[in-house]
Amino acid sequence: MSRPLLGTSSSEIGIDRDDREPIQSQIARQLRSLVLSGRLKPQTKLPSTRALSEELNVARATVVEAYEQLVSEGYLETRSGSGTRVAAELPETLLTSSPKERAREPSRATGRREPARPFRSGLVDWENFPHDDWGRLLGRFWRNPPVTLLEHNDPFGWLPLREAIARHLYEWRGIDCAAEQVIVTAGGLDAFDLIGRSILKPGDEVWFEEPGYPTARRIFSLGGVTAIPVPVDAEGMVVTRGCDRAPGARAAFVTPARQYPTGVTMPLARRLELLDWAADADAIVIEDDYDSEYRYVGKPLPALMSLDKRARVIYTGTFSKVFSPIVRLGYIVVPLALVKRFREERLSHGAPPSLMAQPALAEFMGSGAFAIHIRRMRRIYAARRRALIEALKQAEGKLFTVDASPAGLMLLLRLPAGVSDEAMVEKLAAKGIEAQSLSSHYAGRKREQGLLLSFAGFSEDDLQQAAAKLIGVLT
What we know:
Blueprint: H1 9-12, H2 23-36, H3 49-56, H4 60-73, E1 76-79, E2 83-86, H5 99-104, H6 131-143, H7 147-150, H8 159-173, E3 182-185, H9 188-199, E4 205-210, H10 214-222, E5 226-233, E6 236-237, H11 239-245, E7 251-254, H12 268-281, E8 284-288, H13 304-307, E9 313-318, E10 330-333, H14 339-349, H15 358-366, H16 369-392, E11 401-403, E12 410-414, H17 421-430, E13 436-437, E14 450-454, H18 460-474
Parallel strand pairs: 4-5, 4-7, 7-8, 8-9
Antiparallel strand pairs: 1-2, 3-10, 5-6, 9-10, 11-12, 12-14, 13-14
């Protein structure tokens, strides 16, 4: 059993009650300094908020706020049943073993700790995250929460956040919905589970893209539904093949804006075909729109839900890609006719996500800062995408072909016949590169071979160096 490092926290953290700096800020600042100096190593367990508050003779809420601030910045992480620890992967901050080394080598790049191995999926840029603005919002609502927040009991989430999400979807995705149709979730897994429990029953057949999102397939299957793999072509899910395989399916799970993992965009004609099938079959289309805000080439098509005039689409989104995975918030938009059913299901079986970040996120979105952040990151990600494509050009056509989707945060390298992507993943891992295999996203036996390379969490220089190393391994 790991012992908290700060067993004598009074000697590690000093509180100056005469200082104008708030006590929670003093605690957060000193803990941050201990992490950056290397005194607190990654995965070090911290004292509980109760224990540290008693040792420092401060209110427990003060320590909670300090911890939450550092969690939002990426320095700490919380795990159910194991308390609070220093994050395993820290923000891209200068980490040195001692102040002396930091003074002696201020410009050495080796002093930087990368968030992960190149091409790891699920990462976003952390260096350009608006840490200060976000931290101030969290701190303000934590210190002085409105009475309506303290009395909140709406299972669909904080109403101002749902209103902000509805406005965002109208402006960015063309979806005209009311706040009453929006459900705040604790991310994709929570959304899929709630949708499955609300509209499906054991034995129902559901179409899933092939290849597709394994996590969604797994979550829905846990509810007892039968997953039907439906092939994907250059225009997304092939509706006619779905009709051949399971004409009585109750739902279809699709990623039309950027099919995961191939990156293809479903054109208007295929979208209308899918909607016509859903209406004729009395089925539901579940639209997972996970990172459509990041489109670099051409004008994005409106969301599938914006085309739906017959209330056949349930829309899901997440803040993990466009804001931060640490926030752990997402949303569902349901047709008005299904609002009552979802509300009853949420009340009886599902706990809504924590309110901690919801008011802050609502204000961040309402102020326009969220849209500014997306536009800024889109420029940064576009540059990283171009750098990676350029670095891979020397081997394209010889070792692989590059499927450069006009949107999203990753590229697909298709491998030639006879080359195992799983074997390549293992070889790359031995060289410090973390790629995903395309074949692992298939449910059936027929599997194309390829490598998925995520670029969002890495600098242009890092991506170019990793691309050169990847080419060396494949040669």
